[in-house]
Amino acid sequence: MSDELVPPGLDTSKAHPARRYNYWLGGKDHFAADRESGDLLERHHPSVRLTARENRAFLQRAVHHLAAEAGIDQFLDIGTGLPTADNTHEVAQRINPRSRVVYVDNDPMVGVHARALLTSTPEGRTCYLQEDLRNPEEILGDPQLKEILDLDRPVALMLIAVLHFIADHQEAREVVAHLVGALPSGSYLAASNFTLDYTPPEQAAVALDMIAKGQSDAHPRTREQFGDFFSGLELIGPGIVPVSDWLSPVPAGQRPTAAQVAIYGAVGRKP
After folding, report:
1. What is the pLDDT at residue 83?
2. Which domains does the chain have, with CATH numbers?
3. CB under 8 Å, gap of 24 or more: what pairs does 241-245 form?
């Protein structure tokens, strides 16, 4: 990472989920603290890079399904992460060039690379907001969002691998409820969240100890807890499953195991 690309005031001594995720995906936008954090987590969850790839593939399949099958042409992608291949607008606009996407992230490094998120088709629109998921009112009230998205028409809310960074489950539920509540009937929620449901007890105990010590910032949720985010929504496809199993084109016997992936995914429709 070149120093001239570092936004003023950014503390590169602290790991950030977006940059750590970029590291696991094989990107170049990360610093020593991100790599150290990523390597520490990988020692205790050796398939974490596979998890990152499968989660990314889930995002792309969900966007494709929503654009191609559900006719959604508006997306609110919160916790965007650093740009990589097949970002939300690229997947959606291949199906419908008029698709509109608002990206939101709290990492200034994502803002530095936001131009890669703004390569919209002439018919469509994209924009980037520097904001935190914990501030849903600020996100929904942003003038740029109101210019890009018509909240009187269905919107797909994408919360991919971001909810597990809100430790308090009730707070996370309230944030999701606030966002979904602002969207009209026919909108969708697509989300994923780290889980220990398939992790052996000894390994799960280590993961929880790392969280308690501040060595990990991803908070696991059970299937039931993850399901809370979809309260009042109609689950589509296979429902709540490991992300590698959500409408995957890969034969069941050739997919990673639930323990290897360790992250739930689901898509629900607002009636």
Report:
1. 81
2. 3-269 (3.40.50.150)
3. 241/265, 241/266, 242/54, 242/198, 243/54, 243/55, 243/57, 243/58, 243/192, 244/54, 244/57, 244/58
